[in-house]
Specification:
The protein has about 300 residues and is α/β, with parallel strands linked by helices. Helices cover about 35% and strands about 15% of the residues. The strands form two sheets. Strands 3-2-1-4-6-5 form a six-stranded mixed sheet, with helices on both faces. Strands 7-8-10-9 form a four-stranded antiparallel beta barrel.
Length: about 300
């Protein structure tokens, strides 16, 4: 077996274990490359039957339209149930508070935890990978969350010989990461091998951008240049997708999967470190959010 075959087999095993062990799982699906890989792996894990659990997107209201379009294509093709947890609706319902300073990305935490509680989900698949960020490198495949949806990195369960402890008490749930041992390069090799549909913004294109805090932020109705900023048109692509007010793109001529693979092979910064403004607030920004219930 190739390394990619072994990774695929491990992820499929994880999907089947969770489906057998947990009463009500859900797959968190943003429409980005990692969650799309998860969707493909789940499709393979249960074929020819349909995926036996719904998919959940936490919608900030600031998502890229290309990503939402690809999400809808996958949901329609596979015939899975899509649940959308809206940050905007959570604000209206008083679930989370928009103080005008907190990013929509951070408001996803309360929105997600409320949705998990409302639907009674006992396990939630996430697309996190250990190579992305220091806090995610600490995660187990099965990541226990207490009755408040919080994660304690110092109190995790051992996972020897691919044996996972899924025991939870009432009100608790498990986050499960089938792509834990994958790298960004593995994901792109798999996308190429499986000829997976992904959002067009992952490939090189012309885009009007604002240079802000060392990042290229896409101009949109939500992002306008400030007094000292200008809008420029550049040849760019996205390495990761999320809240368009915080997610930057990179200058790149890579317009095919082989070209993207060549580009990533020599990259020295992870996709989150290079293009996610929400991880630049502090050294422990991601870990702080994960402790509170983030993906």
């Amino acid at each position: 077996m190739s390394q990619l075959d072994e990774l695929e087999a491990e992820s499929i095993h994880i999907f089947r274990e969770v489906a057998a062990e947990f009463e009500k799982p859900v797959l968190m699906f943003s429409g980005g490359k990692d969650s799309i890989c998860m969707m493909r792996l789940a499709e393979k894990a249960f074929y020819p039957a349909k995926i036996p659990f719904p998919v959940l997107q936490v919608d900030t209201g600031f998502d890229f339209p290309e990503v939402l379009s690809t999400r809808d294509n996958w949901v329609k093709r596979l015939g899975v149930q899509l649940i959308v947890a809206s940050v905007e609706q959570a604000i209206k319902d008083g679930v989370v508070v928009d103080d005008g300073k907190t990013s929509r990305n951070r408001l996803q935490i309360g929105t997600l935890l409320n949705c998990i509680e409302e639907h009674g989900f006992t396990a939630a698949f996430g697309g996190g990978r250990r190579d992305e960020e220091k806090a995610r490198a600490k995660e187990r495949v099965y990541s226990h969350r207490d009755e408040f949806g919080q994660w304690d990195p110092k109190n995790q369960r051992p996972e020897l010989w691919h044996l996972y402890n899924g025991r939870i008490h009432e009100g608790e749930h498990m986050r499960v990461f089938p792509l834990s041992n994958w790298t960004e390069l593995d994901v792109w090799h798999y996308i190429g091998q499986e000829q997976i549909e992904i959002p067009s913004i992952y490939f090189s294109h012309q885009r009007r951008v604002v240079v802000r805090d060392g990042m290229l932020i896409s101009e949109s109705e939500y992002v306008r240049p400030k007094d000292s900023e200008t809008v420029e048109e550049r040849t760019v692509r996205f390495r990761t997708v999320g809240d368009m007010t915080l997610t930057g793109c990179v200058e790149s001529p890579a317009s095919t999967i082989p070209e993207i693979i060549d580009e990533i092979a020599i990259a020295r910064v992870t996709e989150r470190g290079a293009t996610r403004g929400d991880d630049r607030f502090s050294e422990a920004a991601m870990e702080d959010r994960k402790r509170e219930g983030y993906f």
